[in-house]
């Protein structure tokens, strides 16, 4: 009896998942032994076992399976990051987060765009499109790094919160510039900021409401009838928060991040889980988040197109160098210095200048541009891959070292 085509596809996907879990578990042990963030090891291992090398796994970037893992994995990692945010810390730095996640994205996009214009020799509108796609930081990378490397609370939480809030801005600016590039409209800063505000507010409301309801049903003294099912509630609510916000054309990532903040600060809301239930929930979230970043970064590494990267390698390296060493520092100092309440020290700002890894979100934007046949899409995808590799392999792996040198590590 011959197997159906659907069954064969299912077996192939199951085999790919088994390989990723096996290789990813071993890679996690290597990362722990080397005392470095596991996302960097996952990325390297993905490049090794992908189609360009050993060809052990081959899941296309535009496949439904990859998109499912990308959306849910990023959402769950972002929820985990939100749960580690403390409201009392966020109250001190909210102005910096707001400025750097909005104005900061525009500054980064503009400087990177000018660099792309000169080094790549592309039209300015294509250069700005590249700058916009790269401008947002990546929560799926930053959250795991700060989970493993214990940095001073307000610095770590500022960078993580910025990475959650600037995704919407990055996407808005990218598609606004794309409209100009394809002759569909004019770029309007007012419209872009208005769109960001709308997406952010709707995402915050959805995440806040679902987070509060989850806290009630999990930890309320009388209404907490789902306490023993808390891990399942987190899965259900993360999916619900993302899909609800997305259905209303708002930021799904914003919604899951705020949901995490609400659930992580349930004691401030007057709720409290028992020690045993809290321990069970923490273990579940920790394990699930580990599996999600394992899948995301191994797959991301396996999808690196080396042939495409080589076409623009020299100029691309120059653009990314400006992106890391010029655009980010200018952005941080321009956005953090006006916040007198936070009283940022030079060492704190220098650390924030270095922690701006590029990963899943810019990679997804570049993939969308290729799928839409946007002007210069292949060049944008090439430089995006170079940025992902450079920032994760250089910045993520040196985070602990730099924090130690600047005296920002916590005991």
Write down the CATH class. Mainly Alpha
Termini Cα gap: 62 Å
Element-level helix/strand string: HHHHHHHHHHHHHHHH
Largest sheet: none
Number of domains: 1
Question: Could you say which overall geometry the principal axes of the C-alpha atoms support?
Answer: globular
Overview of the structural elements:
The chain has 411 residues and is mainly alpha-helical. The chain has a single domain (68-405), classed as Na+/H+ antiporter like fold (Up-down Bundle), CATH 1.20.1530.20. It contains 16 helices and no strands. The protein has helices at 5-34, 38-49, 64-83, 87-120, 124-134, 139-148, 153-181, 189-219, 230-247, 252-264, 275-302, 306-311, 313-336, 346-354, 360-371, 377-405. The radius of gyration is 21 Å and the shape is globular.
What's the structural blueprint in terms of helices and strands?
Layout: H1 5-34, H2 38-49, H3 64-83, H4 87-120, H5 124-134, H6 139-148, H7 153-181, H8 189-219, H9 230-247, H10 252-264, H11 275-302, H12 306-311, H13 313-336, H14 346-354, H15 360-371, H16 377-405
Helix pairs in contact: 1-2, 1-11, 2-11, 2-16, 3-6, 3-9, 3-10, 3-11, 4-5, 4-7, 4-13, 5-7, 5-16, 6-7, 7-8, 8-9, 8-10, 9-10, 13-14, 13-16, 15-16
Quick rundown:
77% of the residues lie in helices and 0% in strands.
Short key terms for the protein model shown above:
411 residues; 0% strand; globular; Na+/H+ antiporter like fold; mainly alpha; single chain
């Amino acid at each position: 009896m011959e197997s159906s085509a659907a069954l064969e596809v299912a077996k192939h996907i199951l085999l790919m998942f088994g390989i990723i879990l096996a290789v990813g578990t071993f890679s996690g042990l290597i990362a722990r032994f080397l005392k470095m963030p596991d996302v960097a090891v996952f990325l390297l291992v993905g490049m090794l076992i992908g189609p360009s090398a050993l060809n052990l796994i081959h899941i296309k970037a535009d496949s439904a399976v990859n998109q499912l893992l990308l959306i849910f994995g990023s959402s769950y990692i972002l929820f985990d990051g939100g749960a580690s945010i403390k409201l009392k810390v966020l109250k001190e730095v909210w102005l910096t987060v707001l400025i750097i996640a909005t104005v900061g994205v525009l500054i980064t996009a503009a400087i990177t765009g000018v660099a792309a214009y000169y080094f790549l020799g592309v039209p300015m509108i294509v250069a700005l499109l590249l700058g916009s796609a790269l401008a947002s930081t990546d929560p799926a990378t930053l959250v795991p790094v700060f989970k493993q490397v214990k940095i001073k609370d307000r610095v770590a939480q500022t960078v993580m919160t910025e990475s959650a809030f600037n995704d919407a801005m990055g996407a808005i600016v990218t598609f606004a510039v794309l409209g100009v590039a394809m002759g569909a409209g004019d770029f309007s800063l007012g419209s872009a900021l208005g769109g960001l505000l709308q997406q952010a507010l709707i995402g915050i409301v959805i995440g806040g409401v679902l987070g509060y309801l989850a806290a009630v049903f999990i930890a309320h003294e009388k209404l907490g009838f789902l306490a023993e099912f808390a891990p399942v509630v987190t899965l259900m609510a993360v999916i619900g928060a993302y899909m609800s916000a997305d259905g209303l054309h708002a930021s799904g990532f914003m919604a899951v991040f705020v949901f995490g903040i609400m659930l992580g600060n349930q004691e401030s809301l007057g709720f409290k889980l028992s020690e045993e239930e809290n321990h069970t929930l923490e273990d579940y979230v920790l394990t699930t988040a580990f599996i999600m970043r394992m899948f995301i970064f191994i797959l991301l590494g396996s999808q690196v197109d080396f042939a495409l990267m080589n076409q623009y390698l020299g100029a691309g390296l120059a653009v990314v160098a400006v992106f890391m060493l010029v655009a980010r520092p200018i952005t941080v100092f321009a956005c953090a210095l006006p916040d007198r309440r936070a009283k940022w020290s030079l060492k704190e700002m220098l650390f924030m200048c270095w922690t701006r890894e590029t990963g899943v979100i810019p990679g997804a934007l570049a993939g969308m541009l290729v799928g839409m046949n946007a002007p210069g899409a292949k060049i944008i995808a090439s430089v995006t891959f170079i940025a992902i590799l450079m920032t994760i392999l250089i910045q993520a792996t040196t985070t602990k070292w730099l924090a130690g040198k600047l005296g920002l590590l916590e005991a």
